[in-house]
Design goal:
Layout: E1 6-7, H1 14-17, E2 26-29, E3 32-35, H2 42-59, E4 65-68, E5 72-74, E6 89-90, E7 94-97, E8 103-104, E9 107-109, E10 114-118, H3 124-128, H4 130-137, E11 142-147, E12 152-157, E13 168-171, E14 175-177, E15 185-187, H5 188-193
Parallel strand pairs: 5-9, 10-11
Antiparallel strand pairs: 1-3, 2-3, 4-7, 5-6, 7-10, 8-9, 11-12, 12-13, 14-15
Length: 197
């Protein structure tokens, strides 16, 4: 399956994005609009729900919060950039935000501490290329890419140089541990067992 349709007639900003129909889901990456359809698969949804619940249970009622898509994350190009001028609006499958000043009624402005994307045939190239570069550039501390079909997780942790080094690959019976949420870990066998047969 290929990539979803683009609105590639021009570059867009958040002010354009927020005027589009509510029944359509789009993301903006450097002003390029990417269609988020079709809806995620059952396996994708099962992993998202399982992880979201696990993270929420781990965080309790502390300072960090977990949010699931659809949830707008605006990534401004510069500090103080007006929201309407932001060319980057993504909807990660899961996002953990520990700085409450980044939260708005419509979502989040600024880099989450942890972003989790679950691959689908329609989004895999974007998640592994464009979003990887976007999250690195905007300082997302930790980025997980989960491949339900091949049952692996890539974990990217931002280095002191502001770059993601080669990711840690987690497969099989391994456990994934978070550095952005110290103490949080996921057993992959249990995670992938959530996928309906």
């Amino acid at each position: 399956m290929g990539e979803p349709a683009l609105k590639d007639d021009r570059l867009y900003l958040y002010r354009d994005y927020k005027g589009w129909p509510e029944d359509e889901r789009w993301e903006l990456i450097d002003g390029v609009a990417w269609n988020m359809s079709p809806a995620p698969s059952t396996g994708h949804q099962a992993i998202s729900m399982e992880l979201g619940f696990s993270i929420r249970s781990f965080l309790g009622k502390g300072g960090c919060r977990v949010f699931a898509a659809p949830f707008d994350v605006l990534l401004p190009d510069s500090p103080g950039q007006p929201d309407d001028e932001v060319p980057n609006v993504v909807q990660p499958d899961l996002a953990v935000i520990c700085d409450p000043s980044k939260l708005r009624p419509f979502g989040c402005v600024g880099a989450p501490d942890l972003v989790i994307e679950i691959l689908s045939p329609y989004t895999s190239r974007r998640d592994l290329a464009e979003k990887h570069a976007l999250y690195e550039r905007h300082g997302v501390r930790e980025y997980w890419v989960i491949d339900p079909g091949n049952r692996y997780v890539h974990v990217y942790v931002l280095g002191d140089d502001g770059k993601y080094p080669k990711p840690g690959l987690h497969v099989g019976a391994m456990t994934v541990k978070s550095t952005a949420c110290p103490g949080f870990e996921v057993k992959l066998e249990e995670l992938f067992a959530a996928i309906p047969a």
